[in-house]
Write a structure and sequence with these properties.
By secondary structure, the protein is an alpha/beta fold. The chain folds into two domains: about 230 residues, Aspartate Aminotransferase, domain 2; about 140 residues, Alpha-Beta Complex (Aspartate Aminotransferase, domain 1). The protein is about 40% helix and about 15% strand. The chain has 13 helices and 14 strands. Strands 1-9-8-5-4-2-3 form a seven-stranded mixed sheet, with helices on both faces. It has a three-stranded antiparallel sheet with strand order 7-6-12, with no helix packed on it. A two-stranded antiparallel sheet has the order 10-11. Helix 2 runs parallel beside helix 8. The chain is globular.
Length: about 400
């Protein structure tokens, strides 16, 4: 039956901003200080505590955090940065922005994260950094990642946009490592509407980040101003920070609820025979090694077994589910096959695992306000849809 009431529509994500947070935003607006100020400072202090006391600076978005990280690492023209094609295109765009070359390598078909064997094979004398992406909040093998980086003298810029409160061997992502970038965009586990933060290693890196996020300006005394290197306009506002402070208070509850929803998804998927239909579920991780924050629950459709084939099967599935009142997302098509990156020489067949996953990956609804029954509805609808569209 088609959902006729818009209120019955289940989106793949829905941000939650409660009345108390709205009231705090009102106080900021009434205060007369609505750009970067005391709320930003308080938010950075809380984030630093979350990440074991490491220096943290906030930014207007999670793309700026990675661009600034690359600049702090002195990555520029002539340098190569190895990354994954299964990510939001910003991961590659920031590499281009600083004048460096993105080098895509294939993904592990089980984790859907960057294949660390492929990373090591792609290192050249021009390689300066690695940008791993933690898809759906799942970390890569952090021990192996940093072993590679140490042996080849590379910086690591962790695209942890989706990984707030994910952990490796019990430690939060961001509490260790090199430069770690998080996003607080509207669909993330905690949000500031738009925003992000960068976790750094030293006070010197944090000071440089402060300068680069506000045009490179250095102030001294009452009226002294200088610029030693150009920056941008990437500062977070107190309005955004007030939302972030409130969201941080609920982080534990958010993570726990998402873990519960993921468990329900696995149970419901088994009841409805999704694996028997060729639908690939997320990898169930050994919790003593890694825990994900379940930023997304993603399946990979068997596009070669469905009507429409690899080119159209996912669209047909999404349309059928929407007709039943269920939204789904695509995160992400393989970016090395976008027109611009094709102009740089990338072609089909170069990264086969990423290409297959990118054609079939589907993000199912996942947000704390979902009801348990919503999970059952999603899995039942997906199962029925794929049965009907099977060749």
């Amino acid at each position: 039956m088609t959902a006729s009431n818009p209120q019955d529509f289940l989106p793949f994500v829905r941000p939650q901003i409660d009345a108390a947070t709205i009231a705090e935003v009102g106080k900021v607006l009434a205060s007369g200080w609505i750009t970067s100020g005391p709320k930003v400072q308080a938010f950075e202090t809380r984030l630093s505590a979350l990440f074991g006391g490491r220096p943290v600076r906030t930014f207007s978005n999670g793309s700026a955090t990675m661009e600034i990280a690359l600049r702090i690492a002195d990555i520029g023209p002539g340098d190569e940065v190895i990354t994954t094609p299964i990510t939001w295109v910003a991961t590659a765009n920031v590499i281009l922005t600083v004048g460096a070359k993105p080098v895509f390598v294939d993904v592990d078909p089980r984790t859907r994260n960057i294949d660390l064997d492929a990373v090591e094979a792609a290192i050249t004398p021009r390689t300066r950094a690695i940008i791993p992406v933690y898809l759906s909040g799942l970390p890569v093998d952090m021990d192996r990642l940093y072993d590679i980086a140490r042996r080849h003298n590379l910086r690591v810029i962790e695209d942890a946009a989706q990984a707030i409160d994910s952990r490796w061997r019990g430690q939060r992502i961001g509490a260790f490592g090199d430069l770690v970038s998080f996003s607080f965009q509207a669909n993330k586990n905690i949000t500031t509407v738009e925003g992000g933060c960068l976790v750094m290693n030293t006070p010197e890196e944090a000071l440089r980040a402060e300068r680069l996020r506000l045009q490179g300006v250095i102030r001294t005394g009452m009226d002294g101003m200088d610029v030693e290197e150009p920056g941008g306009k990437f500062n977070l506002t107190d309005v955004n920070a007030a939302i972030g402070l409130a969201q941080l208070e609920t982080l534990d509850a958010i993570t726990a609820r998402r873990a519960r929803l993921a468990t329900l998804y696995f149970e419901s998927a088994a009841r409805h025979g999704l694996a028997d239909l060729g639908i690939e579920l997320p990898l169930a991780i050994d919790p003593t090694l890694a825990t994900t924050n379940w930023h997304m629950f993603q399946v990979v459709l068997p596009t070669d077994r469905l009507q429409g084939g690899p080119a159209q099967a996912r669209q047909l599935v999404m349309e059928a589910m929407r007709a039943q009142g269920i939204g789904a997302g695509v995160h992400y098509p393989p970016i090395h096959l976008f027109s611009y990156f094709r102009s740089l020489g990338w072609r089909e067949g170069m990264l086969p695992h990423a290409e297959r996953i990118g054609r079939g990956i589907l993000t199912l609804p996942m947000f704390p306000a979902m009801q348990d029954a919503d999970v059952e509805r999603v899995c039942a609808t997906l199962s029925e849809t794929c049965k009907r569209l099977s060749l």
